[in-house]
Design a protein that fits this description.
Number of helices: 13
CATH class of the largest domain: Mainly Alpha
CATH superfamily of the largest domain: Winged helix-like DNA-binding domain superfamily/Winged helix DNA-binding domain
Structural class: alpha/beta
Number of domains: 2
Largest sheet: 4 strands, mixed
Order of helices and strands: HHHHHHEHEEEHEHEHEHHEH
Strand order of the largest sheet: 4-3-2-5
Shape: globular
Distance between the termini: 48 Å
Number of strands: 8
CATH architecture of the largest domain: Orthogonal Bundle
Helix content: 40-55%
CATH topology of the largest domain: Arc Repressor Mutant, subunit A
Strand content: 5-15%
């Protein structure tokens, strides 16, 4: 039985919980263009403390962060999505233009690696703290097989046991802290050492997930654009299902897929977290210019 201390959960969640509360307020009142004083009053914080907290998390002020949440702004970025996706795919899954992303290789698990509920498969895993909450990271000897946003160590273990009930699980607290920190550090050149992803999926799902890897940092694509890019222009609905089944949060950037009308849409780990991811990523991209 895995037990996490109350202090560790509190420390992992405190800042992000406050930031999420701030973002929810900004989204709900975006049409009013709230001032810092309005946001601080709603969160029962001083303006100076809120400004420091928010800027430390997002890299920009709440007012500037708000600029990245509008539907119209999303539509503008979406308009360039297809050409960006095609250009990225011509370069391969990673390249010199992808300053913000790790060099990634993506391969399918073999049937023998997941047959009979993962019998004979060994997984090492940990739950780490990130700026977006707790993150489960699990890997086999051949690569990372899961990155999931989770609520607790217990829910992470339940996910793994549900997906691979016969696998041998090795919990190694803190073993992936360095990698998780790297994932969410903006504007860092990652180098050429590839990170192998070893995922379980159908051929169609793998095709979609590889296309997602081609979406540049802070760019958007629609489901229809992904479908066209993989040569299946009438399969937008099936693409949506494959996007929703993505087992690798953030690195396979399904959060960058939105609806054609500019609406951000649903997300496997919650529509609210998708807003957080997108707005933070946009803020980092603008801040680097």
């Amino acid at each position: 039985m895995l037990v996490e201390t109350e202090d560790s959960v509190t420390n992992a969640s405190r800042d992000y919980a406050r930031i999420r509360e701030a973002i929810r307020y900004l989204v709900a009142h975006a049409h009013q263009q709230p001032e810092l004083s309005d946001l601080a009053a709603a969160l029962h914080l001083s303006e100076s403390h809120l400004q420091r907290l928010f800027t430390r998390w997002a890299g920009v002020s709440p007012k500037r962060f708000l600029q990245h949440l509008s539907c119209e702004a999303a539509k503008v970025r979406l308009a360039n999505g297809e050409s960006l996706l095609n250009s990225a795919q011509e370069l391969g899954l990673s390249g010199s233009s992808r300053l913000h992303d790790l060099f990634i290789t993506l391969e399918a698990m073999t049937p023998g690696e997941y047959k009979n509920g993962g019998a004979g498969l060994e997984l090492s895993w940990s739950v780490e703290v990130s700026r977006f909450g707790l993150v489960l990271l699990a890997r086999t000897t051949r690569g990372v097989c899961a990155i999931q946003f989770v609520d607790s160590v217990a829910s992470a273990e339940a996910y793994l046991r549900g997906r691979w009930p016969q696998a041998v699980l090795h919990y190694q607290a803190g073993s992936e802290a360095e990698l998780v920190n790297t994932l969410f550090e903006p504007l860092v050149k990652k180098g050429d050492q590839p990170l192998a992803l070893r995922v379980q999926g159908t051929n169609f799902q793998l095709q979609v997930w590889r296309a997602l890897l081609g979406i540049p940092y802070a760019a958007f694509c629609s489901y229809q654009q992904i479908a066209a890019a993989i040569g299946r222009p009438s399969a937008a609905r099936a693409v949506g299902s494959a996007v929703g089944a993505n087992p690798i949060a953030w690195l396979i950037p399904c959060h960058r897929v939105i609806r054609a009308e500019g609406v951000l849409g649903e997300y496997r780990w919650g529509a609210e977290r998708k807003i957080d991811l997108i707005a933070w990523e946009q803020a980092q991209a603008v801040g680097s210019q």
